[in-house]
Amino acid sequence: SHAGMVLSVLVILLLSMLYEAIKMGKAVLLRRALLALPRSLSRESLAEAEEGDTGATQGRWFQYHVGQTLFHVVQVVLGYMVMLAVMSYNAWIFLGAIAGSTLGYFV
């Protein structure tokens, strides 16, 4: 049915866009985690800073790390879902995946 095919292509397009968005989100999280980390390292090497401050920084870095891990798991799942859809060897689904990836990267 045409409606089912259109729906499938739209779903794959959205999944591909989401995959790209998550990839970007992971990069942003990594940058923030790296920004949160060096301050605590430099403080420790200079002198024994307030323990609470260092602990808070480490806690923030840990939260970023957990967030990155979750992003990674979702990215892997989405990647395999898109790959399986493309392996149906349907030209429209393939084009939907390419279009979604392009749009996701562009936006």
Automatic annotation (TrEMBL):
**Annotated transmembrane regions:** 6-22, 70-95
Q: Which UniProt keywords apply?
A: Copper, Copper transport, Ion transport, Membrane, Transmembrane, Transmembrane helix, Transport
Q: Where in the cell is it found?
A: Late endosome membrane; Membrane
Q: Which GO terms describe its molecular function?
A: copper ion transmembrane transporter activity
Q: What is the protein's membrane topology class?
A: Multi-pass membrane protein
Keyword check for Transport, yes or no.
Answer: yes
Question: InterPro entries, per this entry?
Answer: Cop_transporter
One GO cellular component this record assigns the protein to is: late endosome membrane
Instruction: Give the family this protein belongs to, as stated in its UniProt record.
Output: Belongs to the copper transporter (Ctr) (TC 1.A.56) family. SLC31A subfamily.
What protein name does the entry list?
Copper transport protein
Q: Which organism is it from?
A: Steatornis caripensis (Oilbird)
| Classification of source organism | Eukaryota, Metazoa, Chordata, Craniata, Vertebrata
What would be the name of the gene that encodes this protein? Answer: Slc31a2
